[in-house]
TrEMBL record:
Name under which the protein is recorded: NAD dependent epimerase/dehydratase
Residues annotated as transmembrane: 266-288
One Pfam family hit: Sulfotransfer_4
Keyword Transmembrane helix: yes
Organism: Roridomyces roridus
Keyword Metal-binding attached: no
Top-rank taxon: Eukaryota
Keyword vocabulary terms for this entry: Membrane, Transmembrane, Transmembrane helix
Length: 291
């Protein structure tokens, strides 16, 4: 694994200081035009991340800026606060999360792709009736094989310990992904998720095809190039190759960086807590012996 300096050079966006924006105070500033509602999430799957990031890059080349993607949450971790409100509204009937709320959370974006947006595909399709919808489907068995990776990050103990020690960053991410598994899949263990995964996968695609008018929907196969995408969106074909970004090695690096960041923050929190305890203990001891 490359050292930290080389990682920073190759992935500078990952090291951007957190914007610390409360999206509740925001509003829509650009129109929402494209909903790239892909498959049920395969968090940290190399194929999945390559697919998501390639389409994100393609949409931005075509002028849809910004395109919301999971990486956006790394730049503003407080986004997960509103995504949790969206989960509560959708699955628990607590509050409401419609066009007004999406405009606050996604108001700076002209397009969306990847998680967390694909969990709310029906709500986004309804909220933005003028937006075009892009759907890409992978062979279900190939998807199922890669899907197990999400279990390693959701149900195993170590990430949960890191989340406990780093509640403001890792904790926010972990809380959302665990809620996602429990609500969408109705499961509390990896085994329970696997039992219903294929059913949920099929239902996701069936629902999007059922609720989306045909004139708004493009079923796009990655590898088809610019032509079908540009024809559907009414854009001229760019004079550049279709993006091929975040290949396997780069994706593994980003996964490692996210884990390193969580562990580093957890260690800093523990060290800070121990320092405060030592200072307090010393203060109490000093006060005691001088009574």
């Amino acid at each position: 694994m490359p050292d930290e300096k080389s990682l920073r050079a190759r992935h500078p966006g990952f090291y951007v200081k957190d914007a610390n924006i409360d999206r509740h105070t925001c509003q829509r500033v650009v129109p929402m035009e494209v909903l790239n509602i892909l498959s049920v999430q395969r968090t940290h799957c190399e194929y999945c991340l390559t697919l998501f990031t390639a389409i994100k890059a393609a949409l931005q080349i075509l002028g849809y800026d910004e395109c919301y993607h999971m990486i956006n949450t790394h730049r503003n971790i407080r986004d997960f606060d509103m995504w949790m409100e969206a989960v509560a509204a959708k699955y628990d009937g607590k509050g409401k999360f419609g066009r007004a709320e999406f405009d606050k959370l996604l108001g700076h974006c002209m397009a969306v792709t990847d998680a967390p947006c694909n969990l709310f595909a029906p709500e986004l399709i309804d909220a933005y009736p003028d937006a075009k919808v892009i759907l890409m489907e992978r062979d279900i068995e190939a998807w199922y094989k890669s899907f197990g990776i999400i279990m390693d990050n959701t149900f195993v103990p170590v990430p949960r310990i890191v989340a406990f020690l780093d509640p403001l960053w890792t904790g926010r991410r972990a809380k959302f992904f665990r809620a996602w598994m429990e609500k969408q899949f109705g499961a509390k263990t990896a085994e329970e998720v696997r039992e219903v995964a294929r059913e949920i996968y099929r239902a996701h695609y069936a629902e999007i095809r059922r609720i989306t008018p045909k004139e708004r929907l493009l079923e796009y196969e990655l590898g088809s190039g610019w032509e079908p995408l540009c024809k559907f969106l009414g854009k001229p074909v760019p004079d550049v190759p279709f993006p091929r970004v975040n290949e396997a090695a780069a994706l593994r690096e980003k996964i490692v960086m996210a884990r390193r960041k969580g562990i580093r923050r957890a260690v800093q929190n523990v060290a800070g807590g121990l320092f405060i305890c030592v200072v307090v203990a010393f203060g109490l001891y000093y006060a005691w012996i001088h009574i």
